[in-house]
Amino acid sequence: MAAASAAIQQLVELAKQLGIDHLILLSGRGEAGAQRAEKIVQDSGLNWNVVRASWFAQNFSESFMLDGILAGQLALPADQVLEPFVDADDIADVVVATLTNPALQRQIFEVSGPRALRFSDCVHAISQACGRPIQYRPIPLAPFLQALARSGASQEMRGLMAELFGEVLDGRNSHIANGVEQALGRPAADFSDYIAKTLASGVWTPAIPATAD
Fold first, then answer.
1. Which of 1, 8, 55, 78 is nearest to 32 (CA)?
2. What does the pLDDT look like over 148-172, one tens digit per residue?
3. CB count in 10 Å sphere of residue 67
4. Residue 3: CB partners within 8 Å, gap ≥ 6?
5. pLDDT tens across 14-62, in order?
6. At what angle do helices 141-150 and 155-163 cross, to 10 degrees?
7. Whole-number Å distance between alpha carbons of 109 and 49
8. How far apart, in whole angstroms, are the C-alpha atoms of residue 141 and residue 163?
């Protein structure tokens, strides 16, 4: 995390050199390293905002989690912990609001979805929407990280996953945050809303294997 703090400090200095007067940091909930980075931005002398977000709903439609959904089984080192997954589109709307409304500057907006769900709840809901069986399987952290290594994930990515699943995802962030409503004056999108638009995109439709003529 020292490297992350150094990178944020460099970003602040570069922003000043370029005449940028407003920085917005997308941060994580319940992470000491993230809060150190937040402090650097807050002490920069520039206008600032921090958007402190829960897990993105879009994780289920991107990267290795999408692979699991398409394969019909998602295995993660998370069992009964509740997480109020936030729609990334809500995060984007909050960021735009802080850039365009001076009254919102110099504030932290902690954003989440409107209800907390287990990973298994999310996968079950996606399975029902897709109309095909998709299983969720909780696994220990070590085999999960080994599988990431075999898939070619970088050491940096594996380190991030080890911190998130091994430390941060312990229930400390299960509470609902109201930053979306504070910034936008409307409720945060529900996970069911995310499912509906993602289903319409076709990203959860498995590719049909090509057949020989």
1. 1
2. 999 888 998 899 899 889 888 999 9
3. 11
4. none
5. 999 999 999 999 999 988 888 999 999 999 999 999 999 999 999 999 9
6. 160
7. 8
8. 10
Q: What is the CA radius of gyration of the chain?
A: 19
- Any residues with CB less than 8 A from the CB of 82 and at least 6 apart, and which? 116, 117, 118, 171, 174
- Residue length, the chain? 213
- Give the pLDDT of residue 63: 82
Taking CA atoms, 195 is separated from 36, 118, 125, 176, in Å, by: 34, 15, 8, 19
Cα 67 to chain center, whole Å? 17
75-111 confidence digits (pLDDT tens): 999 999 999 999 999 999 999 999 999 999 999 999 9
Amino acid at 148: L
* Residue-wise pLDDT tens digits, 112-160: 999 999 999 999 999 999 999 999 999 999 999 999 999 888 998 899 8
Which tokens in the block code for residue 19?
A: 């005449």
User: E strands, the chain, where?
Assistant: 22-28, 47-53, 73-76, 107-111, 135-138
110 phi and psi angles, rounded to 5 deg? -95, 120
* pLDDT the model gives residue 62: 93
Question: Do residues 32 and 52 lie in contact, with contact meaning Cβ atoms separated by under 8 Å?
Answer: no
Cα 188 to its chain centre, rounded Å, is 14
